Amino acid sequence: MGIYEKGFERPSPIQEESIPIALTGSDILARAKNGTGKTAAFSIPALEKIDQDNNIIQVVILVPTRELALQTSQVCKELGKHLQIQVMVTTGGTSLKDDIMRLYQPVHLLVGTPGRILDLAKKGVCVLKDCSMLVMDEADKLLSPEFQPSIEQLIQFLPPTRQILMFSATFPVTVKDFNDRYLRKPYIINLMDELTLKGITQFYAFVEERQKVHCLNTLFSKLQINQSIIFCNSVNRVELLAKKITELGYSCFYIHAKMLQDHRNRVFHDFRNGACRNLVCT
How far, in Å, CA of 233 to CA of 215, rounded? Predict the structure, then answer.
């Protein structure tokens, strides 16, 4: 019922490929773009396989960022709206004490970032010995040097029979190496023939550094842009560009990793609700 309430009428290609295989218990290595419905591709079988009468953690979904953790947990809650499944989200930068208290209540599905879940597992409050499914979303980022040691330690807390589902837009060497070591005869899905999502047109503007703000100003003045997200590669650039866009007379918010989590959540929430036209972020 929750699936229909989310507006799904028929499965997307990644859902059609993944869901039946995941329900058989096989490991999956799937390559798919963001925006293709991949969150539901692993959330639906995860929810389906959970025994809601058994108050233990049965599924762990690992993601690389706090924002993605919140988004994924929300999707799980909406899809499982009519089930008695308890979903918890935990990430770094939030109260560890609150998470520990929450884990004394029933949790069936845990969504979070690797470092925080590992910390809770080491403290003995996050018990994963009966967790039958591990999902890794954006696996290429999760297997970066920042996260990989935590993930390899975390896997030791899971039973040897666990099922692993890996979803990634790219398959770097780290993903292939991890696959060889931890997945058992995984079912391979590759839906990356087209790099651009349907309904999206991409343009590339080759400009020198000093022309970038002028280029943005031209785009803003010539095009009908309801909302835009502008990505920068550093915290300093985010703040500098947001200041320049504001000086040009356009409404602008910004978020980056050095801001408090509550502040980031509030900014993102306001942007999604249309309070501002432009968001600059890392």
Answer: 18
Interval 258-274: pLDDT, tens:
888 888 888 888 888 88
CB 72 within 8 A of CB 239: no
pLDDT attached to residue 1: 56
Could you give the percent of the chain with pLDDT greater than 90?
59
Domains of the chain: residue spans and CATH = 1-190 (3.40.50.300), 209-281 (3.40.50.300)
Residue located via tokens 């499982």:
80
Nearest alpha carbon to residue 74 among 39, 108, 98:
39
Average pLDDT over residues 25-33: 91
Q: What does the block give as tokens for 16?
A: 């059609």
How many other C-beta atoms are found inside a 10 Å radius of the C-beta of residue 42?
28
Q: Long-range contacts of range 242-247, CB-CB < 8 Å, 24 or more positions apart?
A: 242/280, 244/213, 245/213, 245/216, 245/278, 245/280
Residues 186-196: tens digit of each pLDDT: 999 988 765 55
> Residue 88, by phi and psi: left (phi above 0), alpha (psi -120 to 50) or beta?
beta
DSSP state of 253: E
> Per mean pLDDT, which range of 34-43, 66-75, 193-202, 210-219 is the poorest?
193-202
Model's pTM, two decimal places?
0.75
Edge-first strand order for the sheet with 109-112 is 87-90, 109-112, 59-62, 133-137, 163-168, 28-31, 187-190
How many DSSP H helices and E strands does the chain contain?
Answer: 12, 10
Gap between the Cα atoms of 43 and 143, Å rounded? 21
> What 3-state DSSP class applies to 234?
coil
